[in-house]
Every structure is written in structure tokens, then in C-alpha cells.
């Protein structure tokens, strides 16, 4: 049984702890909430619990369908044992329906259904505002080489297919989502989390938002939205 040792890193939503095994870390999910690159801050009661549980369920689903992830197992209500990875500083966003920044950039109405999914890359740099990158930027910054970009792209689309079909059967529309990837011994693994913090989930019947947009846009009912997603995927 591995134990939680000193903290290696604390982010906006999670803490990462070292264990006796250099290839294993423990991730603890927090209730802290941020938006707009940390400009808006708050707390969502039990968010850490819901996100840990939802992420575990969806990581298990992806593993069962051939996607390699950092997830190993749940350790409790808010903690997970995962493989240590060196995070690739890219935020990989897959979009099925126009929402958020894409609506503003392209002048398309929110809710417009794309004919095919779009994948986007953002530089994971809060101090720069997480700028949008293309493949040439990624290579120039030496964030990933061309083969790695191809692998990450293929994994992103595969994750989208699996999650979109699964969630549709749960009455949830997968609008868009952010993924992060990391390397362990040269292997690229899906990392971070998959939760209402990192995905846009809309109820298929009502169109109700079931994600962090309720916090971003001061819509209220944030805790209930997270709880609803958990109740459908647990």
C-alpha cells in the first residue's frame, strides 16, 4: 500500500503527492473553483468529490476501450492513484457543438452543431493567456514533434467518440472538452481529469448546462449540476 508523502504540486483544482514509488503519485481533488485563467475564484461544495468520482468512472471507460491513461485506481472519495507523467504543456480541446470562445471567434451562434469534430491546441501558459497554437507553433516551441502531435490528435478524437456515445446514452450531450497528456518512459498517456470542470455537458432533453459554465456565468445551481452528472455516470 503506497502512502501519500510530500506535495509535489498544487494546481487550481488538484494537489499531487509523491509516494514511495517514483512512478506513482496520489492526486487529491479540491473544492476550489476558478475561471478565466484564475481571474474568477470561488468554492463549489463537494466539487472535489464529484470530479474525482466522475473522472475515475470515465477513465475506466476509456481504459476499457483501449485508451492509455495515467489512472490506476480510486483511493477514496477525493483521491486517486495515478502514473507519474511529465505533462506536455498543451491543452487539447475537442469541440462537437459551438460554445464559449469558439462562438466569439467564428461568429457562430452557441449551440450550432458542427458537421465534424474540431480539435484545437492551446499553449498551457496562464501568463500568456493560454494562446491558440497550430502544429507549426507546437514544433517551433518543441512542445511535441510531428509524430507526437499525430498521436495526441488521434487519441483526442478517439476519446471524443467513446465519451460522446457513452454520455448520449446517459442523456448528456458532450459539447466540448479539454484534455491534457503526459509522458512516462516515452509513452504518451491521457492525464489530468475528465469532469464538469473540463467538459461542457448539456442535458439532451432540456439543454440545461451541467458543467462549470454555471459558475463562470453565475447561473446558480452549480453543485446540483455536478451532482447530476455524477448520478448518471457512477
TrEMBL record:
Name assigned to this protein: Phosphoribosylaminoimidazole-succinocarboxamide synthase
Q: Which family does it belong to?
A: Belongs to the SAICAR synthetase family.
| Keyword vocabulary terms for this entry | ATP-binding, Ligase, Nucleotide-binding, Purine biosynthesis
Name the Enzyme Commission number(s) assigned to this protein. Answer: 6.3.2.6
Q: Which reaction does it catalyse?
A: 5-amino-1-(5-phospho-D-ribosyl)imidazole-4-carboxylate + L-aspartate + ATP = (2S)-2-[5-amino-1-(5-phospho-beta-D-ribosyl)imidazole-4-carboxamido]succinate + ADP + phosphate + 2 H(+)
The family database entries (CDD domains) matched by this protein are listed as: SAICAR_synt_PurC
Q: Which domain of life is it from?
A: Bacteria
Provide a GO biological process annotation.
Answer: 'de novo' IMP biosynthetic process
Task: Write one Pfam family the protein is assigned to.
Answer: SAICAR_synt
Q: Which NCBIfam families match?
A: purC
Upper lineage is: Bacteria, Bacillati, Bacillota, Clostridia, Halanaerobiales
SAICAR synthetase/ADE2 N-terminal domain span: 8-232
Its pathway, per UniProt, is: Purine metabolism; IMP biosynthesis via de novo pathway; 5-amino-1-(5-phospho-D-ribosyl)imidazole-4-carboxamide from 5-amino-1-(5-phospho-D-ribosyl)imidazole-4-carboxylate: step 1/2
Q: Name one GO molecular function term.
A: phosphoribosylaminoimidazolesuccinocarboxamide synthase activity
Gene label: purC
- The question of whether Membrane is a record keyword is answered with no
Amino acid at each position: 500500500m503506497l502512502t501519500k508523502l510530500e506535495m509535489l504540486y498544487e494546481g487550481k483544482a488538484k494537489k499531487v503527492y509523491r509516494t514511495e514509488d517514483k512512478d506513482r503519485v496520489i492526486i487529491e481533488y479540491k473544492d476550489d473553483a476558478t475561471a478565466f485563467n484564475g481571474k474568477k475564484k470561488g468554492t463549489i461544495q463537494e466539487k472535489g468529490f464529484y470530479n474525482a468520482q466522475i473522472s475515475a468512472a470515465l477513465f475506466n471507460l476509456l481504459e476499457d476501450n483501449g485508451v492509455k491513461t495515467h489512472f490506476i485506481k480510486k483511493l477514496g472519495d477525493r483521491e486517486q492513484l495515478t502514473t507519474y507523467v511529465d505533462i506536455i504543456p498543451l491543452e487539447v480541446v475537442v469541440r462537437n457543438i459551438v460554445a464559449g470562445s469558439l462562438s466569439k471567434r467564428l461568429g457562430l451562434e452557441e449551440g450550432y452543431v458542427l458537421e465534424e469534430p474540431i480539435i484545437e491546441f492551446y499553449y498551457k501558459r496562464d501568463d500568456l493567456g493560454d494562446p491558440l497554437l497550430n502544429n507549426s507553433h507546437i514544433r517551433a516551441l518543441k512542445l511535441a514533434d510531428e509524430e507526437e502531435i499525430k498521436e495526441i490528435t488521434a487519441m483526442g478524437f478517439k476519446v471524443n467518440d467513446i465519451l460522446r456515445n457513452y454520455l448520449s446514452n446517459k442523456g448528456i450531450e458532450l459539447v466540448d472538452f479539454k484534455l491534457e497528456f503526459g509522458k512516462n518512459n516515452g509513452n504518451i498517456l491521457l492525464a489530468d481529469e475528465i469532469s464538469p470542470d473540463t467538459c461542457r455537458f448539456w442535458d439532451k432533453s432540456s439543454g440545461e448546462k451541467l458543467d462549470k459554465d454555471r459558475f463562470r456565468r453565475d447561473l446558480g445551481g452549480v453543485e446540483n449540476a455536478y451532482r447530476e452528472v455524477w448520478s448518471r455516470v457512477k
